[in-house]
């Protein structure tokens, strides 16, 4: 049952077209049903009992990357992801979710991650910080995690990584909404972090967002400082524990991932990292708070064809910048962008570049 709060947002959004041009899915598919307004209208019709919640409607609710571009641009403060998440809960409870989504949920239940595979172990003992790798880097982009750990070692930081790192809950939360199953994952993760007692440096901004902004609301707060890896590296650059390199003469543009851009408003760290790595920076079209999503790991796992188009759209933005290197520091962005690199361009992991 959709909550009154979610219905309040849906009823308001159904009248408004003002964010439709910002939706990365709608821009690539051209379908009106992919706009926040259309999703609000569908739920309004269900609430008024003029339409039943069926598989087609459930499919529409999953054709969204929860990037928050709509929320960020709403002058009246409405939040389409609020009712989209609850609609996903409704879809799962009533066995209406797409089969590709159900497969990912089953993988989480069986293995603890959406990919259903064993995670690369980065376990190590350390005394300065606890590094939270996250399931995307541990299963799909291990080189980025390794580069971060090597960079910290080079800067003289003693890093600890858990042997059996629990899921943060962000993947399951994006798939089924914020349910008891997600709260349980969050509680387990927070307890494991609190047991260590060190400040936690989080590689993936998606994991950092749920830890910093959701855990306190669910009474499972992390009791030490939570720092995004980009912010932590930025601080080490400012303290000159990571030295800047000579200019490479290569023009690069930074991609701001969804949750760094709109949950944390964190823009300086990645640009400082790029400059320290020797890149000459230009800003690409649609940057910082207005950055266009390139997709997410979880959405790529259940709708790869659509996310390939979304990522290609972001590469089109990049090509307009006149740069040759697209610079990132997020494993989910790397995963989505790496399969559609235009000829003559390169995708750069900034942790690796700083090494």
Structure, briefly:
Helices cover 50% and strands 7% of the residues. It has helices spanning 4-13, 24-29, 36-47, 55-62, 69-72, 80-93, 99-111, 135-139, 142-154, 170-176, 180-196, 205-214, 229-238, 258-262, 268-276, 297-302, 304-319, 331-337, 350-354; strands spanning 129-132, 159-160, 200-202, 226-228, 251-254, 280-281, 325-328, 346-349.
Structural write-up:
There is one protein chain. This protein has 355 residues and is of the alpha/beta class. The chain is built from 19 helices and eight strands. It has helices at residues 4-13, 24-29, 36-47, 55-62, 69-72, 80-93, 99-111, 135-139, 142-154, 170-176, 180-196, 205-214, 229-238, 258-262, 268-276, 297-302, 304-319, 331-337, 350-354; strands spanning 129-132, 159-160, 200-202, 226-228, 251-254, 280-281, 325-328, 346-349. The strands form two sheets. Strands 2-1-3-4 form a four-stranded parallel sheet. Helix 12 (205-214) links the parallel strand 3 and strand 4 (226-228). Helix 4 packs across helix 6 and helix 6 crosses helix 10 (170-176). It is globular, with a radius of gyration of 20 Å. The termini are far apart. The mean pLDDT is 95.
